[in-house]
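Hey team,

Filing this mostly as a record. A colleague (T.K.) asked me to run one chain through the structure pipeline before their review meeting, and I want the input and output archived in the tracker in case anyone asks later how it was produced. No errors, nothing strange. Just documentation.

Input sequence:
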Amino acid sequence: MEKEIIFENTRYERIPIRTHKIKFGESIISVLETYLPAIVKPGDWLAISEKLISVSQNNIRHISTVHAGMLARFIVKGVKKYPNDVGFSRPEKMQLVVEYAGVVRTFFAMSIGALGKLLGIRGVFWVLVGSRAGEIDGFNPDAMDPYKDHAVLPPKNPEKVCADIESRFNIPTTIIDGNNINVKIISMSPKMPVDKKNARLLLLDNPMGQDDEMTPFVLVRKLQE
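Output structure:
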């Protein structure tokens, strides 16, 4: 991925920050205190992987605690498959969606989603099941340990997390869900200099990486011409 990007005739640098392997329950503030102060400059803003937030909150599930039911196993038969991402094609991961959204809502979303596909409209299931259910990550056999056997659930209170980080480090902050398929802005702190649409476009190639880069946050810096 290119560190620099030209967006709306302005050059930006995206600086991935390599960290140690973050442990479950490790303080996000302590992690940022270790890596952030030495490199941040006025005008920078920070993008953080939602996975890092959930890991720091210990908001995870081991695959041994998940039993994929009939509904989850049925839904994954119709899930779009990607060559470079496990997505939600694994029944255990879909089971977490069922548990997160509830059986009734998931069944309703599946039924209307199937009708949408017949009409050539994709993505109806995820709209109806709730956008945050799509943030569930993990159970990926190609990922580094421990994410082969752990799922990371959607972060709790992401808006407050962003606001707290902005207040503590005086840097605007956004939490993103980034992968090989798409990038989604989860939350933003009050002083972010760009809106959600433009923040997403500036990060659309997922400069954090998706393998074992261990770069769970990125500084975005507008460059002077």
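Quick notes for T.K.: The chain has a mean pLDDT of 89. The two ends are 22 Å apart (CA to CA).
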